[in-house]
Amino acid sequence: MGRDYSQAIAASGLTIYDPIEMGDPDLWVPTPELEALLDERLRGISLAGLALRTRSKVVKEHVCRALGYPVPKSFKKTQPRFVGQMFDTYAQKSNNLQVWNEELSPSRRYVILRVDEADQIARVKVVNGEELAQLDTTGTLTQKYQARLVPGDASHELIAAEDTDTLLPHVCAGADLAMNVSPVDHPAHGLILPIAEVFERLSSAVGRSFPNAGSDQERNRGAALHRIVCELLGYADYRDDGRFPDVRNQLLEVKLQTSPTIDLGLVRPASEEPLDVPQIAGTQIRHCDVRYALFYAKTDGAEVKLTHLYLTTGERFFTRFPQFEGKVLNKKLQIPLPSDFFNR
After folding, report:
1. For the segment 306-322, what is each residue's pLDDT rounded down to a tens digit?
2. 128 has which bridge partners?
């Protein structure tokens, strides 16, 4: 897992209510590492015989110990309960996740524990509000943000010729991705390609086709496109952990469009809110620093053919793609977790 976050947190003397700057290299636990740490330390713990309210308290106590926090005598009714790391905990025997009296936030984390038939913690998953919103197939949630893509005459458009001023000092032309990093690694100084080079490398994807197959067509199509993107960027392998942005190492979100409506979920690309990645050489990355590669495609039902590429920064996203207005719900949300949620 690399850095020992729990040791650093214990040495800091902080409580779960003390805020930590997102991306702090020592004390903020990024989501992938948070999931791995809690899964390792909580799996197998028994919750047998506990009433629901007691079970919730015991789970939070175990989470405190796993992360190096002192266990409070009682847990305050803060939103979220773990203020410092921006997360809430949910112990789930069923696949019906209930979120009460608050909106989903892209920066909020949701620590979801699978409790098995023996009342033991069998698996821990950590997702943010954006990832959780994508799981809703019931229409309980309104679509938060959408934009429109109207293809122009050009098949290739580089909308932002340069990266944001925040990211620019950390990019490096010709960075060797095959030898040094994986697509799901955190971004690092000197290993981020400039946006113009990303555009150049991805341009040859236009004209390529892949099968439109499988019972879960949307996910399979997305995986096929991500494979092409990773190959063209120069990675030695393909990896996708389903988190935002898709190619975390390059701060690149990839979208496949077979219709003009761009679904953005809870994340507004131009947002200046911090992104849940470690600071890059002391710089905190924001949502607007993320690069967006949009591939427009046509399908005949059997195959998907990529016809257009658009590349932009989040900062300049809405200069090309006009935004629709969306509304946010504020009520009890019931989100059915997919049957394979804890195996992803």
Report:
1. 999 999 999 999 999 99
2. 109
Provide the pLDDT for residue 322.
94
Can you say whether residue 126 is alpha, beta or left, with left for phi > 0 and alpha for psi between -120 and 50 degrees?
beta
Please list, in sequence order, all residues whose beta carbon lies within 8 angstroms of the beta carbon of residue 77, skipping any fewer than 6 positions away.
Answer: none
| Backbone CA torsion sign across 284, 287, 288, 292 | positive
Q: What is the pTM of this model?
A: 0.87
User: Which residue in the block uniquely carries the two structure tokens 């033991």?
Assistant: 120
CA distance 124 to 130: 18
One-letter amino acid of 9: I
Closest alpha carbon to 195 in 280, 252, 242: 252
Q: Helix/strand/coil (H, E, C) string of 158-219? A: ECCCCCCCCCHHHECCCCCHHHHCCCCCCCCCCCECCHHHHHHHHHHHCCCEEECCCCCHHH
Strand partners, 280: 283
User: What is residue 54's three-state secondary structure?
Assistant: helix
Reduced 3-state DSSP string for 80-127: CCECCCCEEEEEECCCEEEECCCCCCCCCEEEEEEECCCCEEEEEEEE
Residue-wise pLDDT tens digits, 225-266: 999 999 999 999 998 888 899 999 999 999 999 999 998 888
